[in-house]
Specification:
This protein has four helices and two strands; from the N terminus they run αβααβα. The chain is of the alpha+beta class. The protein has a two-stranded parallel sheet. The mean pLDDT is 77.
Length: 103
């Protein structure tokens, strides 16, 4: 990230600046179950640092409404979280030549 900071100090055009990285935190609910007191402050710190400094985009993968709500409740400071729901495709809508196992 030092390179990015150096380029910003030199006021290089945005096209030359490196793009932010993506941090993907998978199975966030499992972290909440295993480390209930440390997980939410850690998620808050990671999101604050990386989003504020435009270093990375943080993606938390949750599988339940409770997990999503625990993150959305931390959104009181500013709008940092956006909820995107990915629904699975029904079996009848899959193409016939799809390599997905239909059983």
């Amino acid at each position: 990230q030092w390179f990015r900071r150096y380029m910003e100090i030199l006021r290089m055009p945005p096209i030359l600046l490196p793009r932010p990285a993506y941090i993907i935190v998978d199975q966030f609910e499992e972290l909440l179950k295993k480390y209930p007191e440390q997980t939410l402050p850690w998620a808050d710190a990671v999101t604050n640092y990386h989003c504020r400094n435009n270093l990375a985009r943080v993606i938390f993968v949750v599988t339940s409404d409770e997990g999503a709500n625990s993150l959305l409740n931390m959104d009181w400071k500013q709008t940092r979280f956006a909820r995107i729901v990915l629904n699975s495709c029904p079996l009848e809508h899959l193409p016939t030549l799809s390599t997905i196992d239909r059983k």
